[in-house]
Known about the structure:
The chain has helices at residues 3-12, 20-44, 47-68. It is mainly α and 73 residues long. The chain has one domain (3-11, 19-67). The longest helix is centred in the middle third of the chain and has 25 residues, at 20-44.
Amino acid sequence: MSIIDQALAFETAKMSNMSTSDRVAASREAKRLILAINETYKKTKESNLMDLMKRLTAKKKKIEKRLLGRPSI
């Protein structure tokens, strides 16, 4: 399975009812996919790869926001 196929599968995966350890694993997987796609993007400069990285980054930020929780005052 190529990196792009893995990224598309990750993007469409459901992220509800995840435990904290699942969220950490998903965040790390997103980071791995983004960095791998970035290496390909550096060589080819394809705009669809950049769009895919942006979508994965947005999903990663949502996961990390949930991990951090609400700030206490």
